Structure prediction request, 830 residues.
Amino acid sequence: MQKHQYEVVVVGAGGAGLTAALYASKNASTAVISKLYPTRSHTGAAQGGIGAALGNTEEDHPEWHAFDTVKGSDYLGDQDAIDFMAAEAVDAVYELEHMGLPFSRNPDGTIAQRPFGGHTNNDTGKPVRRACYAADRTGHMILQTLFQQSIKNHVKFFDEFYVLDLLIVDGKTAGVIALELSTGEMHIFQAKAVIIATGGHGRVWETTSNAYSYTGDGVALTLRKGIPAEDMEFFQFHPTGIYRMGILITEGVRGEGGVLINGEGDRFMETYAPTVKDLASRDVISRAMYLEIKAGRGIDGKGYMNLDVTPEVVNHYADLDDRKNPDGSPYRVTASDILSKLPDIIDFCETYIGVNPIADPMPVQPTAHYAMGGIPTNKFGEVVVDEKNTILPGMYAAGEVACVSVHGANRLGTNALLDLVVFGKYSGLKASEYAASEPYIDLPPDPEAFAMKQLDDLRKGTGKESMVDIAAEMKSVMADHVGVFRVEEGMQKAVDKIQELKERFKNIQVDDPGLKFNMNLIEAWELSNLIDVAEVTAVSALARKESRGAHSRDDFTDRDDKNWLKHTLAWLDNGGVKLAYKPVTITHYKPKARSY
Amino acid sequence: MQVTLKIFRYNPEDDQKKHYDTFTLEAAPTDRVLDLLERVKGTEDGTLGFRRACAHGVCGSDAIRINGVNRLACKVLVQDLKSNKVVIEPILGLPIEKDLIVNMEPFFDHYRSVMPYFVNDDPPPKKERIQSPEERERFDDTTKCILCGACTTSCPSSWVNEEYVGPAAIVNAHRFIFDSRDQAAAERLEILNEQFGVYRCHTIFNCTDACPRDIQVTQAIGEVKKAIIKGSVD
Prediction:
């Protein structure tokens, strides 16, 4: 057992964790603990862009960005936090550029921007170029740039250390317990402040764009310490994952003029979103795709649509839409434009499905993509633990694991990368500020006891149950009943199933008795995290009797602001889930009907 | 179809010597090699050790040797293999920790040695630094690196001399040396002009073949060599 002491400990080394660490380490001793090498983090898989109203090629304003985000959130986002994020966005992007991030460039040398779903000119309602991009590998560039800066600034890393418990003493943050993967040794990190930045949990569902590592670690850690999870029923299904595989095909494809086509050859989004069509927000498009498929209009009657970015098709619809370049000339693309703007998409399609998107359309279906819900925080990343937003001193969360909430019931594309750098920054600043004025809290005599007990439980099951089966049953029931469309009976089935799986999980047994790189043990732990996250998700969804954003019910088809304009809080409680609600912060955008 | 996987095994915690285990499983032509490894671990032998995260070729976790060549397990499909017998081994030249997991620290030490970060000490402008599309294109290829190690661990010069910084480190130096906004090209060229720098490269092209991101690694190393000789990046 090794002991360490750092004023600030950051858990997770993706975009939010690295940004937090860069800021916290300016003023406090800081360590980053990550179960992966930092550059393996899922931020690197983000493709299309980071949203900021730079206005490099056309008029744009942070206020427009804020309104679009509020509308995209189906009015569940907290407007103080959204205003803050949209206003910070411009400087956040310039700061990344100053760190060396290689954005794509306009002919005048400024950062290139492309249209993205739900981002509009608020006067005309038409799509606006707000997504700052580096080809279709913007997340990769952000992750690499932040990691490079961490090396330059001598940030201390504990790579391949897996955090098993948060230490909270007398209501204050005291540190974390972590397992060193290469040795199996336990480490105690005493800390004044802890920043949780562990990412999302798309691995709850069958078809997902998310990495194997996206197992809800941060939410599970906090749930087990009596901290609620907020708005977990809101999980985003991205419209365009590669059919059956779920690998993400960026919305940037549609930003560059690509269109979704159904089995009858129609551009069906014209019916569902007459103004912005294929650039409606993601919840709207995923629903439209399922409705088309249900009506028998999938490609060859199957469960997918075509996403077409071949130059002829792009130019044909650009003409019909009267789409213009910034200089007023008609919008036209060539094969080489597509190749230079979407190189990775072309590579993925060629590698995995043998399709060249410059010549042929891509088969796509909605894929589990992003958690709008998570650990409740305020706009400074401080974790808040009840209906009154009471702060847990010294505990912070940022990035996908957190629910500020800036995404509400549905996140707009490009706002995830923005969320990482804005709230990563402020949680890092606030944590180091807090650490400067607070002492270390004494740890109890056996701080690792709770983590050790859970590890022992994983090793001593009967082995009657298989992890693979339990995971498959969870993914399948969540995909069938807590996916794009939901109904009372199905969600109840999911809740019952997850509770059954939770019992059966007690009888799994980890095969590997070893200490070094016991990935078998880690995967068992990760599965237990996913099951807890699935349970609060299904219970939160079952309780919300309305349709809003990504939570769409066949039995309650309308948004119900009178009864449900509120955030869900869900606690693990006595083997079940306890729910409560807290108000949404509304400032100047009054809820109104949402159409695109 | 049936595929037979012959997988390298080593666990320092038991007494067994390094050896191979063989597993035969049903596979679809479109399965990734990574899918097969997952299936072995999930249903045949839970102790199998390997790294993976994104499963679609962007995180760089799962560089391994597949039938003797360095590849990402998630970017090779069963139908891409010439045979239904597949030999899976760890990448070479790094200490083996367990099965397919190697210690990447020596690799990252070389990476860190070449100043792999942006340097520009002028006060930043209020907005972005201006860079033309042509200037941006100059170093585009090397921005794609995901630090998987496939290139460096395929390089005979790296195998024979572990002090050689290796192709991946040079690729990451190149990314900054040719960035019009950066100011530390001279320092990086000096580092790479030393005994274990670019001159250990004998243009064998294994690195270029191994790169899962299709980076023209050997060409990038050549450009760095040329810049050292000319004393300038123009």
